[in-house]
């Protein structure tokens, strides 16, 4: 079984306390208007996937291919669109709005986001180099990387050599983070530990691939079903007029 993930937005970090009074650093992720806008099938596409979109946008504010695709599918264009590969029993109907309780407290998840960009950095900060000696004839080159050249053969710097350069601003995946809890009222997910990216970054969250987990809602927890249950409960509690 492979369930769909969610597209969330990083709000920031805070601390929450468990029943024993122990503080846990958590990252707050907002699900927002994450909606299923389409599906991929084996017959048509060769694989099975759910297409999710988040943050509705006007057609003029998205790329033309995305706007045309949304128009053909009969849905509104979204700023962020992502596919999640799923198994056959985890296909979610198009138009379903997903909620934070798609994940449950105590389960493990993998998160993926674009890390903070740190600009051009030296090798000591970027690759944790030790640098040169502070004395013994070293002059104004204490943080340099040393020699990078070769002998007569091959006579060049090999590709992939650890050197100074752009740091950060790359896709980072963190595995096996624990879900501390969810807030259905505000549609928030609280994940223990740090999540890559600055506040406001789109974060993809899905079930941990290296953990075997049980009792997860399959294919998801429907928002419509929740409202129907709530209405039914209210009807049962209303006093009958005599």
Descriptive keywords:
globular; 2 domains; Elongation Factor Tu (Ef-tu), domain 3; 14% helix; 242 residues; alpha+beta; six-stranded antiparallel beta barrel
Model description:
This protein is an alpha+beta fold and 242 residues long. Helices cover 14% and strands 34% of the residues. The protein is built from 4 helices and 11 strands. The strands form 3 sheets. A 6-stranded antiparallel β-barrel has the order 1-2-10-9-6-11. Strand 1 (6-17) and strand 2 (23-30) form a beta hairpin. The longest helix is centred in the last third of the chain and has 15 residues, at 223-237. The termini are far apart. 20% of the residues are buried.
Please write out the topology:
Blueprint: E1 6-17, E2 23-30, E3 35-40, H1 42-45, E4 49-56, H2 64-73, E5 78-85, E6 108-114, E7 117-121, H3 123-127, E8 165-168, E9 171-183, E10 188-192, E11 202-207, H4 223-237
Antiparallel strand pairs: 1-2, 1-11, 2-10, 3-4, 4-5, 6-9, 6-11, 7-8, 9-10
What would you say about this model in short?
The protein is of the alpha+beta class and 242 residues long. The chain contains four helices and eleven strands.
Please tell me the overall pLDDT: 90
The CATH C-level class name of the largest domain: Mainly Beta
* CATH architecture grouping of the largest domain: Beta Barrel
Total beta strand runs: 11
Please name the CATH topology of the largest domain. Elongation Factor Tu (Ef-tu), domain 3
Number of structurally distinct domains: 2
| Poorly predicted sequence stretches spanning 5 or more consecutive residues | none
Residue fraction in strands = 25-35%
* Global Rg: 24 Å
Q: CATH H level of the largest domain: which superfamily?
A: Translation factors
- Portion in helices: 10-25%
Please give the count of helices: 4
The helix/strand order is EEEHEHEEEHEEEEH
Instruction: Specify the structural class.
Output: alpha+beta
Spatial shape: globular
Please give the largest β-sheet: 6 strands, antiparallel, barrel
**Cα-to-Cα separation, first versus last residue:** 52 Å
Strand order of the largest sheet: 1-2-10-9-6-11
């Amino acid at each position: 079984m492979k369930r769909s993930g969610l597209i969330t937005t990083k709000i920031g970090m805070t601390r929450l306390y468990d029943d024993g009074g122990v503080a846990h650093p958590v990252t707050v992720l907002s699900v927002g208007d994450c909606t299923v806008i389409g599906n991929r099938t084996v017959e048509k596409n060769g694989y099975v996937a759910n297409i999710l979109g988040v943050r509705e946008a006007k057609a003029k504010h998205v790329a033309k291919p995305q706007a045309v695709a949304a128009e053909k599918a009969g849905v509104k264009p979204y700023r962020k669109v992502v596919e999640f590969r799923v198994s056959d029993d985890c296909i979610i109907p198009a138009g379903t709005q997903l909620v934070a309780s798609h994940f449950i407290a105590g389960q493990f998840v993998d998160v993926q986001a674009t890390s903070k960009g740190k600009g051009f950095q030296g090798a000591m900060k970027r690759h944790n180099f030790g640098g040169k000696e502070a004395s013994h004839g070293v002059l104004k080159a204490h943080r340099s990387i040393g020699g990078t050249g070769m002998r007569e053969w091959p006579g060049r710097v090999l590709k992939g050599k650890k050197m100074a350069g752009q740091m950060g601003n790359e896709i980072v995946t963190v595995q096996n983070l624990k879900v501390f809890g969810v807030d259905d009222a505000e549609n928030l997910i609280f994940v223990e530990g740090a999540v890559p990216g600055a506040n406001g970054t789109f974060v993809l969250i899905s079930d941990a691939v290296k953990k075997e987990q049980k009792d997860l809602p399959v294919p998801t927890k429907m928002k419509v079903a929740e409202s129907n249950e709530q209405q039914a409960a209210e009807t049962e509690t209303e006093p009958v007029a005599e």
